[in-house]
Amino acid sequence: MTDRDALHQAVSRGWREMGTLLVHLARDLPPDARGTLVNQPPTRGSTVLFPTVADMNRNGTRRYDHELIYGAMGTPIQHELEAAIAAIEGARHTQIVSSGLAACTTPLLAFLGRDGHCLIPDSVYGPTRRFANTVLRRFGVETTYYPPLTDAEGLRAMMRPNTQVVVAESPGSHTFEVQDIRMIADVAHEHGARLMLDNTWGVGIFRPFDHGVDIAVQALTKYPAGHSDSIIGAVSVADEQDWHVLRDTCIQLGQVAGPDDCWLTLRGLRTMGARLERQSRSAIDVALWLADRPEVARVLHPALPSCPGHEIWQRDFSGASALFGVVFRPDYSQEAMVAMIDSLTLFGIGASWGGYESLVLPTTGGVVRTCTPDAPDAPDCGPAFRLHIGLENPEDLIADLSAGLDVLTGAAS
């Protein structure tokens, strides 16, 4: 077996193993005399009618049971999606929310209180940082940013008596550091804090609750929906009391997702394993090709030793996604990289990721750091960009990138 074959197996094993689960989960509707549709239709509605006042009152007390009460508290198709995500994450309960950002912010509102303290990795998703620095600050919550690859001693030194939540994002969505989630969970629990993990990159290939996570969040917009046509998120928990706190907060905030987005996401889940088995292998092919290019200083793919925390990925993940970063040598300018990106024909230029199509996004200049001077995109490195590899032929993508690198070197000369 070649090294490339071994990497193909390493990044796609978890997706292959999930295939049967993804096809059959959350399909428990009993057939009627006329048969059963393969896909449950979307259920649209606001008002729910009950035969009696007693029935309405009885259902009104069951807000923790994924029951139909009122449209803004969830519909049957949302409840099916919640059951599916809970099964994938290994959670007891999942709450579907309106977006991936809502999945990040809602549990912070649920589990942080005034005069509380939150620890967030310096590699965190930019909008989560913005929320902490604005809304949480207005609410009297202080945030400290910690180096994503800090050890237990370093993390303990940053914990405070009022630290209520520790956030992790592994790997970081721009710089791809893979965090030691079990260690972070242990330190957080020693100090009475909860660990919240943004598991969007690791959906299906990292089981958060097996590693001590208390709250796992997902931008379902990405791989579960899979077609770049839905905005939707999920928050999952394993503890029943945490579920009550989360569910009450979502009801109080009016957090809900539309039935069509839920339906599209549930449909996308059925093919996620097949899509990602293919996309993860293609991403490795592209990453290995880029790693051999003289223009490239570093490829930030968790399956490669050049990525910070690679050993943790090997230990904890059953596969990889198709999102990774690339850092050029310092003798290439930002302007030359932009010229290269603009020349690409098969990579769309845009934010988000997780669909069937390939994307490119410059990351230099868009990553905020406050405590990690040696980040992969630090000033002593060249400009950096992020690739999402879709379902195109990887040889075609490599040819497109090869032509783009010719533009890069021409712009630099």
Automatic annotation (TrEMBL):
Residue positions, PTM N6-(pyridoxal phosphate)lysine: 222
Stretches assigned to coiled coil: none
Catalytic activity: L,L-cystathionine + H2O = L-homocysteine + pyruvate + NH4(+)
A Pfam family it matches: Cys_Met_Meta_PP
SUPFAM superfamilies, sorted: PLP-dependent transferases
Annotated GO MF terms: cysteine-S-conjugate beta-lyase activity; pyridoxal phosphate binding
EC number per UniProt: 4.4.1.8
Keyword flag Lyase: yes
GO biological processes: L-cysteine catabolic process to pyruvate; transsulfuration
Domain of life from the UniProt record: Bacteria
Cofactors named for this entry: pyridoxal 5'-phosphate
Stated name of the protein: Cystathionine beta-lyase
Lineage of origin: Bacteria, Pseudomonadati, Pseudomonadota, Alphaproteobacteria, Acetobacterales
Gene: metC
